[in-house]
Specification:
Length: about 525
């Protein structure tokens, strides 16, 4: 292993050495430059050489750990007579990146090829005797059952799938080698929690089938969340401008110590754009290490489950949290699922979770990551703010249920279907947030029913719909029309008002009315 961070001074030296040359070039654009001034000085050349040496050392260290993956499926005659879209050679995202702006190249394929051959990259992360384990993306291997792995030295092996995790979009393959792989073929996994914006980032993989491609950039952002990405959950991603293209999926993103800090997974592209535009994303190594270990040990991933629905979070919500709940950040609980660990521990809607164990929670992403990375049956303190007072509850996490069961629970707790009879008369609310409400026909339902939402009103902008049940206005429970009228009349016309609303599907959410 080459010396860690031995070339940081070279970067500084380069900046200092080239600074005068660049400044003189821009301040005297019309002045001719003498021939002997067009060549870099010996000091400048030495600085550049040290940086080159650093990058070639990284390449020498990491490239032997990176593999090219070819994935195929047993061909079955498709019943569909319509041509379907196929990704370009070198990657197959298989729906994980549908929808702009996270769009990879697509082509049409014949209807009898289902699914098409796929390709991607991977990195060897563990070797035990003659067995080597390879970390890659789930979308590289999904729906395929035949895998071929090519090492940098030209060796090729058939591979088998150890396990795949759709939620994190990670998978592990294994190969059997004639003799144990040397240490140089096994990557070192770094601590992605120590990654800082501005640090060097190097992507290695097989974009478009060009194996051992080495591209350099920096970590341009942390904690990115991608939405509209199929069934996978992409949060807390690293962002880089190192060039990533189809085929890089599953390959490593490494630091200047040659440690893997991320697994390349996606790129952003503008509508109609082709290829990389300088915005790529990688799954943090700390997430990959936990998923990888579970897949190798038991072939599947189990995650902790808390059982709350929380707001995704944005700048406006953060402002409302500060104004209404007296906190600077956190995850606002919109609903607590029945019989969940959260309900058993005493969490309630409108609690703001600010700490999970020893980890601060600033937003939804922090909470999701903390819960998902905690094993089931772990008892852990959860700090919340309720009615502007901080308290800590002890929660014992359970194993996360399948997504369809979680969705079913989220729809639970809905009021009755209503009873025959004359509905109560709507309560006119002209000019007050655009809401018209009435007493629900079912007397067992607590709250008021929305019967109309004025177009363009604050209520419409907040996402409130006819049929929703308003259960709380500000800090006041509204069990009936009288309580609702009192609370809504007391709400200032110039300030945002927070409502707790139960939708027709049964899920409860927080809606913010902004005048």
């Amino acid at each position: 292993m080459f010396a860690k961070r031995s070339n940081n001074l070279a970067v500084i030296a380069l900046s200092v050495a080239l600074g005068g040359t660049l400044a003189s070039t821009w301040t005297r654009p019309n002045q001719a430059v003498a021939t002997d001034q067009g060549v870099v000085s010996s000091d400048q050349k030495a600085a550049l050489a040290r940086i080159e040496d650093a990058f070639t050392s990284i390449a020498d260290r990491v490239e032997p750990t990176v593999v090219t993956i070819s994935a195929k499926a047993t061909v079955r005659q498709s019943q569909n007579t319509q041509p379907r879209q196929r990704r370009q050679r070198g990657d197959d995202e298989d729906g994980s990146f549908g929808g702009v702006p996270f769009e990879f190249f697509r082509q049409f394929e014949a209807p009898d090829r289902s699914p098409s051959p796929a390709g991607g990259s991977g990195v060897i992360v563990r070797a035990q005797g003659n067995t080597a384990y390879i970390l890659t993306n789930n979308h590289v291997v999904r729906s395929r059952d035949r895998f071929r792995v090519s090492l940098q030295d030209g060796q090729e092996f058939d591979a088998t799938l150890v396990g795949a995790d759709e939620r994190s979009d990670l998978a592990v393959l294994k190969i059997q080698t004639p003799r144990p792989l040397p240490a140089k073929n096994v990557a070192s996994l770094g601590d992605s929690g120590r990654v800082r914006v501005g640090q060097w980032a190097i992507a290695i993989g097989s974009p478009l089938g060009y194996d051992s491609t080495f591209t350099v950039g920096v970590i341009s952002a942390k904690g990115r969340t991608l939405s509209g990405m199929g069934r996978s959950s992409y949060s807390d991603l690293l962002q880089t401008d190192a060039s990533i293209n189809p085929g890089n999926s599953g390959g490593p993103l490494v630091n200047i110590d040659g440690e893997v800090v991320g697994i390349n997974v996606a790129i952003a592209s503008a509508p109609g754009a082709m290829g990389n535009i300088g915005i790529g994303f990688a799954i943090p190594a700390n997430t990959a290490k936990d998923v990888m270990s579970q897949l190798i040990e038991k072939g599947k991933v189990t995650r902790g489950w808390l059982g709350v629905q929380t707001s995704m979070g944005n700048r406006e919500l953060a402002q409302e949290l500060k104004a209404h709940y007296g906190v600077q950040g956190g995850a606002l609980v919109e609903d607590v699922l029945p019989n969940s660990p959260a309900q058993k521990a005493g969490l309630k809607a409108e609690d703001v979770i600010v700490r999970f164990g020893d980890r601060p929670v600033n937003n939804f992403t922090d909470l999701e990551g903390a819960v998902g990375n905690t094993r089931p049956n772990t008892r852990i303190p959860v700090t919340i703010v309720r009615d502007r007072r901080e308290m800590t509850l002890q929660v014992t996490l359970e194993e996360r249920l399948p997504e369809d069961q979680v969705a079913k629970l989220a729809r639970g707790g809905q009021g009755g279907e209503g009873q025959e009879g004359e509905p109560a008369r709507p309560e006119p609310m002209a000019g007050k947030f655009g809401l018209t409400v009435q007493q629900p026909a079912d007397a067992a339902v607590k709250g008021v029913e929305v019967v109309a939402v004025a177009p363009g009103s604050p209520a419409e902008e907040a996402g409130i719909r006819a049929g929703d049940i308003i259960e709380k206005v500000g800090r006041s429970e509204v069990a009936n029309l009288s309580a609702y009228r009192k609370a809504i009349d007391a709400a200032p016309d110039t300030e945002a008002v927070v409502l707790r609303v139960r939708a027709q599907g049964g899920s409860t959410g927080i809606r913010i009315l902004r005048p």
